[in-house]
Amino acid sequence: MGGVSKHRDFGSIRKLPSGQWQVRFRHPISNRLISAGRTFDAKADAAAYLAAVRTDQLRGQWIPPTAGQVTLRSYANQWLQSRRDLGARTNELYRYLLDRYILPELGSTKVARLEPSQIRAWYTSVARDHRSTATKAYRLLASILRTAVTDRMILVTPCRVEGAGVERSAERPVATVAEVTALADAMPERLRLLVLLACWCQLRRGELLGLRRQDIDLLHATLTVSQTRIFTMKGLSLTKGPKTEAGRRTLAIPSHMVEAVGIHLDRFVGSEPDALVLTGEQGGPLTTAVLHKAWSRARNHVGRPDLRIHDLRHTGLTLAAAAGATVAELMHRAGHSSAAAALRYQHATADRDRVLADALAKLGTPDPVLPFASAAGRPKSD
After folding, report:
1. Which of these is catalytic: 54, 190, 204, 264?
2. Which CATH class is domain 4-59?
3. Which of 190, 192, 333, 336 is catalytic?
4. Is 291 left (phi over 0), alpha (psi -120 to 50) or beta?
5. Is 336 an active-site residue?
6. C-alpha to C-alpha distance for 68 and 183, rounded to whole angstroms
7. Where are the domains of the chain?
8. In the annotation, is 345 catalytic?
9. Looking at per-residue confidence, does 88 or 185 come out higher?
C-alpha cells in the first residue's frame, strides 16, 4: 500500500492505493489521530501541510478540518436565534437583511469557503442600487463572521471590504422657527402638540407616542421620558422602556410651550395617569398610518416635503446648540449616552451666524473714547 512516514508521534503521512498521500495528526485536546480531510498529489505537499498544522497548534491558531463546513445560512440562522439581547425591531431588521440581501447570494456557501473577493463582489452588487442597505447588511454579515472566528470555525474573517461598514448619512435638513409653527398649525388639532414637543423638547417619535399624562408635570413645567411606543416592520405596536439609561430622562418644558401642553391635556387626554398624550381621531393609540398621512399633508402645505418627523428633533437640538447649550446639556436633552452623538448638532445656522457676525462687528469697531483708539492716543509704555 506504500510507505508510511511518522513525524515524532505527532502525525503520519501514507500513500494510498490511489497514489494520493494521506495526512493524519493528533488533536491538541483529545490526542486522537484525525485525518486532514483531504489528500495530496505529492508527498512533499503532504509533509508541508502536516508541518503547518503542527505550527498552528503550537501558536494556538489551529482550526479543525471539520470546522466551518456548515453553510452560512445554517450558521447565520443559529446566530440570530441565539441573540436574546436584540430588541424586537433590531431582530426583525436582521431577519429582513438576511433573507432579502445576504442569504440568497451567500447562504449556500460554507463558512470556511467564504472568500474576501466573493464578499466584495456581493457588497458591490447590493450597493449599486441600495447603498445604505448594503452598509447595514455588510455590518450584520461582519458581526456574524466575527462570531465564527470566536467559535473557532474560521481563523480570520473574510469581511475585508474597506469602508463598507461605514454609513455616510446625508446631513438632515433643519426647519426654521417659523416653519415649525406653520407645521404645527397645519396638523390636525390633536396632533399639533406632537410637532411642538418634537422640536422644543427634542423627543424621538417613539418617545412622543409613548408619552402619558403622568409623565407631564405642569406645576414644575417638566416631562419625563419613561417609555417608548414603537412599531415593527409588520405594523405591530410595542411599548417598552428607553433603550439606554440616558434615554430615561426628565426635561424642562420651554415656558412658551407650557400653556399649549395644558390646553392639549384638557382637550384630548383622558384623566387616567396612563392615558396617552397623543392619540388618534377616536381617542385610541395613534397609528403610523394616521400620523404619516397628517404629517405628509402638513409638510407639503408649508413647502417642506423634505422634512421627516425626526428632523423636528434635529431642528430642536440644533437650536439648543445655537442657544449655547454645552455638549453635556445636549446629551441630556437628546437622551444620548455619548458625546459624539451630541456633537453633530453643534453646526452653524444662518441665524446664529448673524449673531456672531454682529458680535464680531462690535469688536472690530474702534471706540473713540478709548485711549488706544488711535496711534496718537495710545498710552506710553513705562
Report:
1. 204
2. alpha beta
3. 336
4. alpha
5. yes
6. 55
7. 4-59, 72-150, 177-343
8. yes
9. 185
